[in-house]
Design brief:
The chain is of the alpha/beta class and about 450 residues long. It contains 14 helices and 17 strands. The strands form 3 sheets. Strands 8, 10, 11, 12, 13, 14, 15, 16 and 17 form a 9-stranded mixed sheet that branches. A 6-stranded antiparallel beta barrel has the order 1-2-5-4-3-6. The structure holds adenosine-5'-triphosphate and magnesium ion. Adenosine-5'-triphosphate binds next to helix 3. It comes from Arthrobacter pityocampae. InterPro entries: AAA+_ATPase, ATPase_a/bsu_AS, ATPase_alpha/beta_chains, ATPase_F1/V1/A1_a/bsu_nucl-bd, ATPase_T3SS_FliI/YscN, P-loop_NTPase, T3SS_ATPase_C. One of its GO terms (molecular function) is ATP hydrolysis activity.
Length: about 450
């Protein structure tokens, strides 16, 4: 009861507080300069007069000086004039969290865009959150089923691990993510689609994810045509939603497609507020932002957020700065190979180039042994591939290569997987154990 009175007093106080207004000094490029307002970085403001009919735009303070604020909008700036009023909300963005979000599709600042009415059964929390302290985080000891055989066995992912999916464009990143969304045994999946083409979003929701996948997912979307700040925020909103489920004790799968586009959004913002470009035009803030974002996934005191981040590697340049930074922060990477995709081998994962840094902690000794046999067989075959191609490989010279050739069909059938096919974790290991036993190598 007393809580209700406190709430009522709080609401009355907020309603009675003076509204603070400033003015638009100029609109230049992507940003708006505002004078006459006292705000902190990250605070939300509304630009425009709601009674004037020209519409309002919400924006966020991204830089501050004694002479004024620089704000970046969450929507396009058409209709905004110099001199327009600017109202401070008095704090940063609030994000909806909670079970009412399951099955919903949100925009980059957490507003529903699926036409299914307002959000219900949600709480509103501040976008900012600090990652759990390093020593309070439980260690990663349990595997998480992805439902994709080659990943579950050769790059086993632990609950609370952060993995990168590295690939060039059109090699199958998004398709692999949707396979994981449907096949994982995580209680909740939060999927951030950042900087995707608008056309792809419906395809992803309706064909790839499907009604059954969506029912235990939350999708946060910001397409490539939306303002940079909205694209950037989509990544943090999805992360905040995942953290809230984790803090409730759930094992959450957080998927982000793509981390590169998040970095590109930060590049646009950083350059437009006058930061110097450093590596390949990315201002230094990009790399600290990536670290901040990725550090928020992981285990908590209870529950976990397992992160899957796609990273675009342009023209197979694996030293691209975003890929390089991501690889150094993440706990493992899966490399998708264009040659495999072109040959119709899906998922186009190159197991020999992929590694999970926690695999040894989340698999049994027997599982690790059979995975090692398959890896050794694939590696031996790869080393001998040139000889095989020219017909110069003599059977009998290497038992591993012989096994690879004799059981080629079985190995391929294990590694390839249709998009609509999900394999439970134990079944994947049983199949692999069967395969390696039949190969007769150790
Ligand atoms: N498991 C699969 N089975 C069959 N085809 C697949 C599979 N995965 C991907 N593909 C094919 O590869 C194409 C590209 O896949 P996808 O859109 O996932 O790539 P991407 O890496 O996300 O591309 P982009 O960089 O453009 O976002 C798909 O249109 C599909 O035809
Ligand atoms: Mg894609």
């Amino acid at each position: 009861m007393s809580l209700a009175i406190d709430d009522a007093v709080g609401l009355a106080r907020a309603a009675a507080a003076p509204q603070r207004y400033g003015r638009v000094a100029s609109v230049v490029g992507l940003g708006v300069d505002v004078v006459g307002l006292d705000c902190a970085i990250g605070d939300v403001v509304t630009i425009g007069d709601p009674t004037a009919g020209s519409g309002t735009v919400d924006a966020e303070v991204v830089a501050a000086s004694l002479t004024g604020l620089r704000c970046m909008p969450y929507a396009h700036l058409s209709g905004i004039q110099a001199g327009a009023p600017v109202r401070a909300h008095g704090g940063p963005l609030l994000v909806p969290v909670g079970p009412g979000l399951l099955g919903r599709v949100l925009d980059g600042v957490g507003r529903p865009i699926d036409g299914r009415g307002p959000l219900t059964d949600v709480a509103w929390v501040s976008l900012d959150n600090t990652p759990p302290p390093a020593l309070e985080r439980t260690r990663i000891t349990e595997p998480l089923q992805l439902g994709v055989r080659v990943m579950d066995t050769l790059t086993t992912v632990g609950r609370g691990q952060r993995m990168g999916l590295f690939a060039g464009s059109g090699v199958g990143k998004s398709s692999l993510l949707s396979m994981i969304a449907r096949g994982t045994d995580a209680a909740v999946s939060v999927i951030a689609l950042v900087g995707e083409r608008g056309r792809e979003v419906r395809d992803f929701l309706e064909d790839d994810l499907g009604a059954e996948g969506l029912a235990r997912s939350i999708v946060v979307v910001s397409t490539s045509d939306e303002p940079a700040l909205l694209r950037l925020r989509a990544a943090f909103v999805a992360t905040r939603i995942a953290e809230a489920f984790r803090d409730g004790g759930a094992d959450v799968m957080l998927m982000m497609d793509s981390l590169t586009r998040v970095a590109m959004a930060q590049r646009e913002i950083g350059l437009s507020v006058g930061e110097p470009p450093a590596t390949r035009g990315y201002p230094p803030s990009t790399f600290s932002l990536l670290a901040q974002l990725l550090e928020r996934a992981g285990t908590g005191a209870r529950g976990s957020v397992t992160g899957m981040y796609t990273v675009l590697v342009d023209g197979d340049d694996h030293n691209e700065p975003v890929a390089d930074a991501a690889r150094s922060i993440l706990d493992g990477h899966v490399v998708l190979d264009r040659k495999l995709a072109v040959a119709g081998h899906f998922p186009s994962i190159d197991p020999l180039a992929s590694i999970s840094r926690v695999a040894s902690r989340v698999t049994t000794r027997e599982q690790a042994a059979v995975a090692a046999v398959l890896r050794r067989t694939l590696a031996a075959r790869k080393a001998a591939q040139d000889l095989i191609d020219v017909g110069a490989y003599a059977r009998g010279s290497n038992p591993l290569v012989d096994a690879a050739l004799n059981h080629e069909a079985g190995i391929t059938a294990f590694l390839q997987q249709r998009m609509d096919e999900q394999t439970p974790f134990d079944d994947a290991w049983n199949r692999l154990a069967h395969l390696t036993t039949s190969m007769g190598v150790s």
